[in-house]
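Thread: "does anyone have the structure for this chain?"

Original post by V.I.:
We have the sequence but no experimental structure in hand. Need at least a predicted one for the grant figures.
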Amino acid sequence: MWAIRPWPRVQRPLNFHHLMRDHSLAVELGRMTETEAAAAVARAMQQSLACARVTFWNVSGPLGRRVMRRVAGCDGRADRALAEPLELRETTGEFFNKLRETGFHVCPDSAGDPLLRDIFRTHLQPTQGVTMIVASFHVDEQVWGLISCVHDSPRRWTAAEITALRKCASELSRRRLQLAAR
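Reply from O.Q.:
Generated one for you, tokens below.
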């Protein structure tokens, strides 16, 4: 069980991509599984960003009918790892088109975001997801997965937080390309 941390936002280094690189090496050496590595990075991100939840998602399926499957995550409010299976299905391609074009999405109000209408109804609203940032990682120009940081009250995501999340996604893309080249 993790120790409960205070929620005020504290300036901490946002070098999650370095932690991710270290854990990738531990996975290669057989010291931890990919799910354990993702959960550890999610926990570090959740604590540093002082957000409610951080989740790593796998994405598969044709555009407009993609499925997001939770790989691992951290729920800071409940002070627990998120490892149980969860699938979210898309009905339009708008959200993934934006992620393919820009690599990220910043959402100040999940209830009013037209790109998130399906995910809001099925996941964000029931789990009190009010604001969110998402970064995608790619393999061969296709969205392969997402990292989402969700908060349960209004907040403005800083440029440093967005950059840190994008660096993590970039590290995952780089890692997937290395694995595909082997």
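V.I.: this helps a lot. The first helix runs from residue 16 to 28.
O.Q.: and The radius of gyration is 15 Å.
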